[in-house]
Amino acid sequence: MVRYDALDVDTAEIRLLELLPGERDAPIQCKLKTASLQRKPTFEALSYVWGDSTVRRPITVDFDILPVTTNLEEALRALRRLLESRTLWVDAICINQDDVGEKNTQVPLMGKIYSDATRVVAWLGPSNPAIELAVSFTHFFVEKRYTTKSLNWLKLKLIAVFSDRARAELLLAILRALEGYLEIANCPYWSRMWTYQEFVLPRDEPIAMCGKLEFRATAMGELYHLINKKLNIESLPAGLAGSEKLNAVAKQAEVVRKTTISLPPTDSGFSNLVSVSVSRDNKFLGSTTSLSTTSLYFTTMFTARRHCSEPRDRVYALYGVATEARAAYPPDYSKPVEQIFHETTAFLVNNEGWFPISLGLMNHSALPNTSYPSWVVKFNTFDPVEPKLHSSLGPSVLKSHVPRVSDDLTTLEVPAWNLGPIRVVLKFASNTSSVLLQMREIMRDPTSSWLARDTLVRNSETLLSRIARLFIACFSRKSLQEYFSADDVVDWYRAIPRDGMDDDQIEVLSQKRDITGLCVRATKEIVGMVLFTTKDRGLLGIGDHGTKEDDILTVSPRGVWKPLVLRAESDGSSEGAVGYYRLAGKAVVEGLMDEGDVDTEVVEEFMQQKLERFHIH
User: Fold this and answer.
1) pLDDT digits over 113-135, tens only?
2) 0.90 surpassed by pTM
3) For the chain, how far is it from start to end, CA to CA, in angstroms?
4) DSSP H or E segment with residue 615
5) Which residues contact residue 553 at a Cβ distance below 8 angstroms, ignoring those fewer than 6 apart?
6) What is the dihedral of CA 493, 497, 500, 503, to 10 degrees?
7) How many beta carbons lie within 10 A of that of residue 507, not counting itself?
């Protein structure tokens, strides 16, 4: 057990790890020493993921045995030099993880640690031949860096001009480089919370390491599209058909194709890798957006799909970037998680003017928890339904018309247009196969006999295509909608077999990059949700699981990117009383979302109304 001496908080003391030299296979030996950040010590900071905490390997620290995760032990082994020591800062060793008080004082220093380090090393894991090809491809084609390995690409290009077989060999090498890129993009490093700020904060981009291989990870962002440009398997001469080289190319292309389509469209290492590149560019080159890269809102959205084992780190892992939030609510690991989420939601609303509804509500499904307000955001979940209100809604509204949390943090006040009460039309089933059959029956019934006769629906003659567009808006990005029309979606659901699909079929079909994949993925996202209309205007919408009859649909002009579904708590009928609501969830509404065509008639109609102020508990 390592013996930790107390650190001087007043002088911003930290511990540094001296990694002693040794042979590749020799045991890892280290020493700890203290240093004040005020004296600007020289050290490298290690950025990495802990990995499986149940599997550990022993290292020696100050002659004591310290079990560390396998990933950390491998990183130290790769970093160790043969003849000289190396001074590092490594969180798992330099912070006493068993001392909550020390963590509360050291975590606020981590932003400065990574900003002030001489160099930051991002350990991604071991290397392999495919990763080596991806790195050398990036060096040659993206960075124009000429090394022994990157010049091999020049050799391959020249020979391919004169030989069809060499062209097949070049294509095979490119495919293997793409495979290596996908391995890099899907390293666990890019999916963890803490590594976001560790990669974004340093003035100089961290050096990425796979094994002993060093490279710039952000240069990889261009590699994927560049490789796709250079791949042209169909142009190979017919004389190569059945040849060993072409068979190898075709086989590798199929492997890469399967790997690529298996990446969830909105939850891949690629998107996380791109996010740190964008964050670094905006931070150091200047942002052209209205959101600051140091805002808590910006960072929570960019890290929403990352993971951490300690739920408090959904917030605290961003404090190195979001310094204003850290000053308002310093890290305290003794606080209940719910309190941290409560305070953070209030900070986002009051200090940055945004209510982060897309990050998921703590109580939105059944509103069971009355000890915290219904509007508290649960930062360790992310809503897969991504569309936002269209940007044309309320651009001229006064800046004062933003949501606000009361000083006692009990009430969220939201200025919004009241679109009236909801009528629940259909509750979607609790599993994908049943929802597919529900959709089949809806789309095969042009008379809409499933709809109650007294239900008000705008333009009922186009109901089916509007439902289809609404489904697309719930899930897809605009780029997908360019390829598939509402009629395509209607026809696809109509063609579902009468006996439906089993879970294995659904999983396979959801991976497709065509109309089938789009519809299956969209269907998976609406399981358990509610199809509704508004009683006053007949607008179609899809609401969260907890949406009920007579809930109120509201649209806010600023600070809330989705329609809110509210449930009356009291009607305020007594003189001078204020009506209060609970937040039942959020919705996607036809004609109002960024992913579809705006219904200007509806927008103009409700924007002429006076904004109401809804008080939400």
Assistant:
1) 999 999 999 999 999 999 999 99
2) no
3) 48
4) strand 612-616
5) 418, 419, 420, 421, 422, 534, 539, 541, 563, 564, 565, 566, 587, 589
6) -90
7) 13
